[in-house]
């Protein structure tokens, strides 16, 4: 039976579903713009199309109000963002498709970068920021991202933190910056991050 959406609409629906599952709220249009690397009008038109077709509902004038009308099992796997991406091949029973894993990893890196950018504009003390960063990465682990991919997200976060530290103190080393970063995590969490070095 043919699904009630096109391949491209299915990608947006899968993204909305995965984002909502990870974060407990639907994505903003700007997050879809970043993920799919399209223009804001393109995303807005897609949202209007999905709503017109009855695939989603929204509350007028309310941000992040998208609700799916299809059950998750009727959605396609989340493939890469570019059009024409072939449907993913299942790794083994019970695992996410490889393309879904890659798409979630990409989403994680985008959100980590956005968190750093937000912190640059509205600085938090590192004792608040680092646990927040850890929580973001853990949301991807709880959503089923593989341990290897979660480790890659942590490495990405470490690299961004090191760059930020070097902006403030150019002579700082990666090792000293990682010790500083990890010092803001509670013991059990610190142990997980220490495995990166």
Q: Can you describe what's shown?
A:
This protein is 60% helix and 2% strand. The protein has 197 residues and is mostly helical. The chain folds into two domains: 7-74, Orthogonal Bundle (Arc Repressor Mutant, subunit A), CATH 1.10.10; 98-194, no CATH class. A two-stranded antiparallel ribbon has the order 1-2. Helix 2 (29-36) crosses helix 3 and helix 5 (126-142) packs antiparallel against helix 6 (147-168). It is elongated, with a radius of gyration of 19 Å. The chain starts with 6 loop residues before the first helix and ends with a helix.
The chain-level mean pLDDT equals 86
- Which structural class should the secondary elements be placed in? mainly alpha
- Summed up, the helix count is 8
Major sheet description: 2 strands, antiparallel
What is the domain total for the residues?
2
Ends apart, CA distance between termini: 50 Å
- What is the helix content? 55-70%
Q: Can you count the beta strands? A: 2
Order of helices and strands: HHHEEHHHHH
Low-confidence stretches: 81-96
Strand order of the largest sheet: 1-2
Q: What is the rounded Rg?
A: 19 Å
């Amino acid at each position: 039976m043919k699904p009630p959406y096109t391949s491209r609409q299915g990608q947006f629906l899968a993204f909305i579903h995965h984002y909502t599952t990870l974060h407990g709220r639907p994505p903003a249009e700007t997050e879809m713009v970043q993920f799919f690397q399209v223009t804001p009008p393109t995303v807005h038109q897609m949202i209007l199309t999905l709503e017109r077709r009855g695939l989603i509902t929204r509350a007028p004038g309310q941000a992040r109000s998208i609700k799916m009308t299809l059950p998750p099992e009727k959605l396609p796997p989340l493939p890469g963002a570019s059009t024409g991406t072939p449907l993913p091949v299942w790794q083994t029973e019970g695992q996410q498709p490889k393309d879904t894993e890659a798409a979630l990893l990409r989403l994680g890196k985008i959100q980590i970068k956005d968190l750093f950018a937000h912190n640059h504009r509205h600085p938090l003390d590192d004792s608040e920021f680092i646990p927040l960063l850890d929580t973001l990465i853990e949301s991807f682990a709880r959503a089923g991202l593989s341990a290897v991919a979660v480790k890659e997200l942590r490495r990405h976060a470490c690299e961004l933190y090191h760059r930020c530290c070097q902006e403030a103190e150019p002579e700082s080393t990666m090792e000293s910056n990682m010790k500083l970063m990890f010092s803001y995590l509670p013991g059990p969490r610190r142990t997980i991050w220490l495995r990166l070095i």
